[in-house]
Amino acid sequence: MQDVGQITLATENYYVDDVSVVYGRVPKGEYVKLTVSDTGCGIPDEIVQKIFDPFFTSKKADKKRGSGLGMSVVDAVVQDHHGYIDLITKVGKGTSFFIYFPITRETVKGEDSIEVEGGTESILVVDDDDVQREVSSQLLTRLGYKVDTVNSGEKAVEFLRENRRELVILDMVMPGGIDGAETYRRILEVQPGQNAIILSGFSESGRVLEAQKLGVGAFVKKPITKKTIASAVRTELDRAKNQARA
């Protein structure tokens, strides 16, 4: 948008009877349709098929750089809700995204009404993305945990050299520095037996498996929710306590 233009949000009840769409296929049926339109620069044809790839960004080095996770997170959230996403774009004219959430006529139990167990243990969150780090910190703080954050694997190692934490939550991919697996390997040198879990926007990879062989517990796929992070954290902390008693 380059600080000039207009963004329009609209919702409507919508029935899809034409499954031929630009980005993907939306099955026939009833949906709540969310439309997000802008009057920006539009998306060139050569990159439109890449915009949902994790870490893909068209921002140049001389501009404020994003993480390239924004659209991949949107895509993941839509998929988690069994929805579909489509778009229309024209260079110089703007872009419209259409998100289709399937309608249910049943009563749905919201996540806020589902009990999640927290705790009072100390946790270190390691993530190079400012937004992801803040989201993790806020969710864990609301669950009662004592939370510290750092933005790189190198800083995590230095922090733990002087401080003990009962759990470390590691981002797997941190461009420009060491990844989650290497971070955990170095952490074990200063804090042997350190408990940790891995977060990633990617699917489980060889590097995740390497970290788990070293002792990392659960792998949690981004975007996280209160329920998923609470379950993974509590499971790992309880596992560590049970091992200590054995």
Structure description:
- This protein has helices at residues 45-48, 70-80, 130-142, 153-162, 180-190, 206-214, 226-245; strands spanning 7-16, 29-38, 84-90, 94-102, 122-126, 146-150, 167-171, 196-200, 219-221.
- It is of the alpha/beta class and 246 residues long.
- It folds into two domains: 7-102, Heat Shock Protein 90 (2-Layer Sandwich); 111-245, Response regulator (Rossmann fold, 3-Layer(aba) Sandwich).
- The strands form two sheets. Strands 6-5-7-8-9 form a five-stranded parallel sheet, sandwiched between helices.
- The radius of gyration is 21 Å and the shape is globular.
- The termini are far apart.
- The relative contact order is 0.12.
If classified by CATH, what would the architecture of the largest domain be? 3-Layer(aba) Sandwich
Spell out the helices and strands N to C: EEHHEEEHEHEHEHEH
How much helix, percentage-wise, in residues?
25-40%
Q: What strand line-up does the widest sheet have?
A: 6-5-7-8-9
Helical stretch tally: 7
Mean pLDDT value: 84
The unreliable regions are none
How many domain modules?
2
What structural category characterises the helix and strand content?
alpha/beta
Question: CATH superfamily membership of the largest domain, which one?
Answer: Response regulator
* Strand count: 9
At the first level of CATH, the class of the largest domain is: Alpha Beta
- Report on the biggest sheet: 5 strands, parallel
Distance between the termini: 59 Å
CATH-defined fold name of the largest domain: Rossmann fold
Strand content: 15-25%
Q: Globular, elongated, flat, extended or rod-shaped: what is the shape?
A: globular
Supply Rg.
21 Å
